[in-house]
Amino acid sequence: MSETVPKPDELVQIDYRPPVRDWMHTPVQFRRGTFCYAAAPKNLKYLEMPNPRDWQPMDEDWKLPENWREIILEGMRERLEKFRSFRLFMDICVRCGACADKCHFYIGSGDPKNMPVLRAELLRSVYRRYFTLAGRLAPKLAGARDLTVDVLKEWFYYFYQCTECRRCSVFCPYGIDTAEVTMLARELLNLVGCNINWAIEPVANCFRTGNHLGVQPHGFKDSIEFAVDELEDLTGVRVEVPIMKKGAEVLFIMPSADYFASPHYYTLLGYLLLFHHVGLDYTVSAYASEGGNFGLFTSHEMIKRLNDKMYREARRLKVKYLIGGECGHMWRVIHQYMDTMNGPADFLEVPVSPVTGTRFEHAASTKMIHICEFTADLIRHGKLKLDPSRNDHWKVTFHDSCNPARAMGLLEEPRYILRNVARHFYEMPENTIREQTFCCGSGSGLGTDENLEMRLRGGLPRANAVKYVRDRFGVNLLTCICAIDKATLPPLLDYWVPGVEVAGVHELVGNALVMEGEKPRTTDLRGQPLASIQPPEVTHA
Amino acid sequence: MDPGPPLIAVSAAEREAVVGRWLARVLATYPEQTSRFLAREPDRFRNPVGHALREGLPLLFDEVSGAFDVARIEGVLDEIMHIRAVQDFRASEAVGFIFFLKPILREILAASGATLEALDRRIDQLALVAFDLYMKCREKVAEIRVNEARQRLFVLEKAAGRRM
Ligand code: SF4
Ligand code: SF4
């Protein structure tokens, strides 16, 4: 510790028990820049969700249904019975404080209610009041409090200020997952129509057309064709992308941002080159045109409703199995919920790579593998012609997106790929990557511009580690495998670490792939000139 | 422009006392539990805010008492202002921590008369630099907000452009 820090004896022991009066009785202030706008009534109506109305969080009157308290308490009772984990999480926290300083929102904002232990306490205090004997008899002693409109507002503010990243749960000795507490709190808020548009609109769109932006089938086809044309301009190779081809071996599902946003789009170009390179018999679908599932940020019921289309489309198209793209929370849904909600997918086969023969046993039940697993396996078997010097203009680091890292343990594959397709790769400090990765600060539906200030606070720990490798090694590219990251890290870095760009892993794969019949590559997939324009140095990894 | 000679000689003990007290007061602008965390967690990656203050404040004090090199000052202040510009502070609160230095210097340094006035002037100037940086950060936030919306429709816009 540096000599300038006040001596420990000047500071009292840190006490993680909530200071009773303080936090329980201070109503939240909705300051612009630090919260998300309310869901538009048309979206709620479309989804047949309760209490559609015009309102905003900064309004005094939230236009709640008259019996809102009964609705919430009844919803709580129901969920306490249905999810054993919920009751456990409400009961077993010993307030040891191990999680307290692990949340990026706490680290960046300094707001104590962003300590995971206090965030959960917002709900726990109400649980105690209505569902435990001690809380009913002696609420003050038990740390219990009445459910009031102010408490509801506080829930809204802080549960839409948790990105459900699960970093805190890595440190909890009891395995309490505050992300799940947030999920349940949001589910309760949804019962009385207190939800955010940035989560509900994608859900409504997805339900209507199959993807977050509400792109219709012809728009989907246009975007894909546009990418195919551009790819031909860039590489001289014309790839074929079968749309809704019945009987293809693989259904490939990507996050929709890959075909309409930047820098995601360059990752799409990478996938398309890869599939062409190995001659994969695959198809994409305008119906299952979204890997993302904002149901995860809404309710269990909604997760199920949205996830269902993947399996349905796989069945309709009679494919053998699924490959999923560089999407973050999609993998949490697939890894942790899909099988029990909509599975088992008996009509599909255990994924086997047609190129290497590798059988992906770990996906024996979900029948869906991650594109990084597929690609890493190809590289491992020397099936890709790669020229990593084509990524020499990038000094690369890798951000573990929360969900692939913490919800499915995908840690090595992306690194293995990066080391084979690029020659300058640098890790960020150990306590900021892998399981301990810091969130982008914008996940779980919070990545909207009205919430930018809060996102910049929450993203500080991530950006701070990027800054370290930029200053130390000259890193100029942050790679990741999540669509929300690709949308929200560029503004984050623009603020905290200017000069570092963001890319998907498969964009770099696409740059490095030496395609049969290609014209001399003078630019990368972004159209930027390559660092050294020489005949390719081919390596068989 | 060459930075000038030091304004006042400061012993190591005085420096430690000034900087320690200043840091404690800046940390006290955060809620109580948080100020303890910011003071105690030594890891710069787990505690970027505390780290920026611990590293930055001593250097700023060195400039105030020493050469007052504005370029160096900006380099150090920039990180701190980036943080305070997006935290829950009003503009006056975000910048105001600079002025905490005035009473602290009076208590600890044996300065008086012209030297004290000169120190005060430097602190005022430091606050103005901080305010400029604060405004730049706020403008940046506004600019980012506008750009972000455009990236989200990148392909659709590009494709539409091509068809026209
Ligand atoms: S899940 Fe992530 S955002 Fe939510 S409380 Fe835990 S660390 Fe914070
Ligand atoms: S680490 Fe677990 S038991 Fe300890 S305070 Fe946090 S949630 Fe409670």
Keywords for this entry:
heterodimer; A: 541 residues; mainly alpha; 2 domains; B: 164 residues; elongated; binds iron/sulfur cluster
Sequence-ordered SSE layout with sheet pairings:
The complex is a heterodimer of chains A (541) and B (164).
Chain A: H1 20-25, H2 41-46, H3 68-82, H4 84-91, H5 104-109, H6 116-131, H7 133-137, H8 149-159, H9 167-171, H10 178-191, H11 197-209, H12 217-235, E1 250-253, H13 264-278, E2 282-283, H14 300-317, E3 321-324, H15 329-342, E4 368-370, H16 371-380, E5 385-386, E6 396-398, H17 402-407, H18 412-421, H19 452-458, H20 460-473, E7 477-480, H21 483-496, E8 501-504, H22 505-512, E9 539-540
Parallel strand pairs in A: 1-2, 1-3, 3-4, 6-7, 7-8
Antiparallel strand pairs in A: 5-9
Helix pairs in contact in A: 3-4, 3-10, 6-10, 8-10, 13-22, 14-15, 16-18, 18-22
Chain B: H1 12-27, H2 32-40, H3 48-65, H4 70-86, H5 91-96, H6 101-108, H7 113-151, H8 154-163
The complex binds iron/sulfur cluster (SF4) (2 copies).
One iron/sulfur cluster is lined by residues 93-99, 116-117, 172, 174, 176 of chain A.
Provide a quick synopsis of the model.
Chain A is mainly alpha-helical and 541 residues long. Chain A folds into 2 domains: 8-30 and 50-194, no CATH class; 203-540, no CATH class.
Care to describe what's here?
The complex is a heterodimer of chains A (541) and B (164). The longest helix of chain A has 19 residues, at 217-235. Mean pLDDT of chain A is 92; it is low at 1-21. Helix content of chain A is 44%, strand content 5%. Chain A has helices spanning 20-25, 41-46, 68-82, 84-91, 104-109, 116-131, 133-137, 149-159, 167-171, 178-191, 197-209, 217-235, 264-278, 300-317, 329-342, 371-380, 402-407, 412-421, 452-458, 460-473, 483-496, 505-512; strands at residues 250-253, 282-283, 321-324, 368-370, 385-386, 396-398, 477-480, 501-504, 539-540. With 541 residues, chain A is mainly α. Chain A has 22 helices and nine strands. Chain A has a four-stranded parallel β-sheet with strand order 2-1-3-4. Chain A has a three-stranded parallel β-sheet with strand order 6-7-8, sandwiched between helices. Chain A has two domains: 8-30 and 50-194, no CATH class; 203-540, no CATH class. Chain B has one domain. Chain B is mainly α. In chain B, α1 crosses α3 (48-65), α1 (12-27) packs antiparallel against α6 (101-108) and α2 (32-40) crosses α3. The N and C termini of chain B lie far apart (55 Å). The longest helix of chain B has 39 residues, at 113-151. Chain B has eight helices and no strands. The chains are: A mainly alpha (541), B mainly alpha (164). The interface between A and B is large, with 58 and 50 residues. One iron/sulfur cluster (SF4) binds next to α6, α9 and α10 of chain A.
